[in-house]
Amino acid sequence: MTVLRLGTRRSALATTQSSWVADRLRSLGHDVELVEVSTQGDRDTTTPLAQLGGTGVFVSALREALAEGRVDLAVHSLKDLPTAPDPRTTVAAVPVREDARDALVARDGLTLAELPAGSTVGTGSPRRHAQLAALGLGLEITGLRGNVDTRLAHVHDGRLDAVVLAAAGLRRLGRADEVTEWLDPLQVLPAPGQGALAVEIRADDAVTAAAVAPLDDPDTRACVTAERVVLADLEAGCSAPVGALAEVVEGMDGAELSLRAVVAAPDGSADLRRSLTGAPEEAAALGHRLARLLLDDGAADLMSTSTSTDRSVTERAQ
Ligand SMILES: NCc1[nH]cc(CCC(=O)O)c1CC(=O)O
């Protein structure tokens, strides 16, 4: 029997996600071998991600390995996949989604509302930064990079009062017990695709396509399709202050797709939230309509508002 070579990054989260997919393929009767692929985003953990070219840096090395035939499949956090398709590859399966929300890990079991004004909250994500600032709680939001372990350590050793991370990553790594608040999407909307995985293969590889097809979850695929269309239409990358979440809900005439999105000024001084409901089969059309609504109401101007950090960098440079 042929062995499916699954390319994975070395981080704890990447290997956990890859092993989860490998185990599901094995339970379907396939032989799977994990092949480690190193990416620039893993080697350089100090440069801000935006400067490295966004979370796409995690993806490109895996795509090269696929295109060159060194591996047959790669498992990505879907939210890290650039919205522009790569003609050499295809997303052959989107498995059932983990918790899509963001989560707060704060000192002393505190929630957002309980953190005193001036508390330091670490996040490297402009989307989280903008939405946390927009809550108006007087939190001091500071940049932070590194793997999940490194980020949690900042709270446990007292360098920060709190950090915000993806609930999915914490659950997958068995660290959900450290969460002090699951952030309600009414307050903080997750990144488009957050909590979902993408199983990517070579576009012309029918054998691997057939092997991974049973892993696809149509509801999750509809949700992430709608969310990513919003992101793409706003011409925003993974580092933009854009959140989106779609959910399949039971409506009066069967399943409905409920989609909401937020666009925020990078400093959180203003934000714009809109939502729509439609048919799951028309996920992409729903995403286009919601993006149109946001753009008509000024989304492009909001996103390009300069931030206080931008200003302080310029001042220092002068
Ligand atoms: N940006 C890095 C990244 N990419 C995927 C996840 C978590 C898993 C997921 O969102 O599916 C994380 C960590 C985080 O945002 O806390």
Automatic annotation (TrEMBL):
EC numbers for this chain: 2.5.1.61
The family database entries (Gene3D superfamilies) matched by this protein are listed as: Periplasmic binding protein-like II, Porphobilinogen deaminase, C-terminal domain
Q: Which reaction does it catalyse?
A: 4 porphobilinogen + H2O = hydroxymethylbilane + 4 NH4(+)
* Residue numbers of S-(dipyrrolylmethanemethyl)cysteine PTMs: C238
What note does UniProt attach to the cofactor annotation?
Answer: Binds 1 dipyrromethane group covalently.
Highest taxon, organism lineage: Bacteria
Ranges of residues in domain Porphobilinogen deaminase C-terminal = 222-295
Q: Pfam families, per this entry?
A: Porphobil_deam, Porphobil_deamC
Report a single Gene Ontology molecular function. Answer: hydroxymethylbilane synthase activity
Q: Which UniProt keywords apply?
A: Porphyrin biosynthesis, Transferase
Q: Which residues form a coiled coil?
A: none
Q: Cofactors per UniProt? A: dipyrromethane
Domain (Porphobilinogen deaminase N-terminal): residue spans on this chain: 4-208
GO cellular component terms? cytoplasm
Q: Name one GO biological process term.
A: protoporphyrinogen IX biosynthetic process
> Which family is it part of?
Belongs to the HMBS family.
Enumerate the HAMAP family for this protein: Porphobil_deam (MF_00260)
Q: What does this protein do?
A: Tetrapolymerization of the monopyrrole PBG into the hydroxymethylbilane pre-uroporphyrinogen in several discrete steps.
Give additional notes from the record. Answer: The porphobilinogen subunits are added to the dipyrromethane group.
Subunit description: Monomer.
Q: Which NCBIfam families match?
A: hemC
Protein name per UniProt:
Porphobilinogen deaminase
What is the organism of origin for this protein? Phycicoccus duodecadis
This chain is encoded by the gene named: hemC
